């Protein structure tokens, strides 16, 4: 009897393990466990996965974005992000919410935001405000800064991370970490020459 057919017989007749020893008994328990975990994962997938969170940046504005000769980047960036829970049966708690702002893969801004709850099919507006000063590393980045300044808009990436808890009916289950990434093109401060911010969809990972 091959191990595959033994596995099948274990699965089909768990009582048999009383008769055929410890190995078969362990094998039967293990396989039942795998099946239960598999079914739970499938149920969770069917409930949750088909409807990912959606996030859009509705507006982003730079009141200040200056690179001093000593490479200090002085910034004041406001962003409005709408996060939507499209699920009909699943509520979401967002904990440890943090937002990051990056220029040329260098993080210059960081803010911690309040936790929030999102009922089924609800949207939440999150508005991180970044301001301060941060040294910008590297001559290439300074050169990129100048050329984008000439173009009148800056490529800035804004991220939103949160630890999720999932509410299904009366149950609250620890969920995955959500990572939302929004690649933005933001008009330079004081640029009134027609450069307006276009609403941008974000990518969501778990
Ligand atoms: C940043 O810009 C906003 C919008 O112009 C302004 O209200 C706010 O006072 C500025 N913050 C700082 C620290 O300069």
Write the SSE topology.
Layout: H1 3-12, H2 16-19, H3 21-48, E1 54-67, E2 72-84, E3 90-103, E4 106-112, E5 116-118, E6 123-126, E7 129-135, H4 139-151, E8 153-168, E9 171-187, E10 200-201, E11 203-205
Antiparallel strand pairs: 1-2, 1-10, 2-6, 2-7, 3-4, 3-5, 3-8, 8-9, 9-11
Helix pairs in contact: 1-3
Largest sheet: 6 strands, antiparallel
Low-confidence stretches: none
Helix percent band: 25-40%
* Bound heterogens, unique: 2-acetamido-2-deoxy-beta-D-glucopyranose
**Could you tell me the strand content as a percent range?**
over 45%
Strands, count = 11
Count of the separate structural domains: 2
Question: What's the SSE pattern?
Answer: HHHEEEEEEEHEEEE
User: Average pLDDT, to the nearest integer?
Assistant: 87
């Amino acid at each position: 009897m091959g191990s595959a057919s033994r596995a099948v017989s274990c699965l089909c007749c768990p009582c048999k393990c009383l008769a055929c020893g410890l190995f078969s008994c362990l094998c039967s328990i293990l396989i039942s466990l795998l099946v239960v975990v598999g079914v739970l994962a499938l149920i969770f997938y069917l409930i949750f996965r088909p409807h990912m969170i959606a996030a859009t940046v509705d507006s982003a504005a730079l009141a200040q974005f200056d690179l001093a000769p000593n490479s200090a980047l002085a910034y004041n960036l406001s962003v409005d992000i709408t996060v939507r829970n499209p699920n009909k049966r699943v509520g979401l708690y967002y904990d440890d919410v943090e937002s990051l702002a990056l220029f040329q893969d260098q993080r210059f801004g960081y803010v911690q935001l309040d936790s929030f709850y999102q009922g089924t099919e609800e949207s939440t507006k999150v508005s991180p405000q970044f301001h301060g000063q941060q040294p910008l590393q590297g001559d290439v980045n300074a050169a990129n800064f100048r050329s984008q300044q000439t173009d009148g808009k800056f490529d800035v990436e804004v991220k939103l991370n949160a630890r999720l808890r999932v509410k299904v009916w009366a149950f609250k289950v620890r969920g995955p970490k959500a990572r939302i990434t929004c690649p933005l093109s933001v008009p330079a401060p004081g640029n009134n020459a027609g450069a307006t911010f276009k609403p941008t969809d974000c990518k969501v990972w778990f």
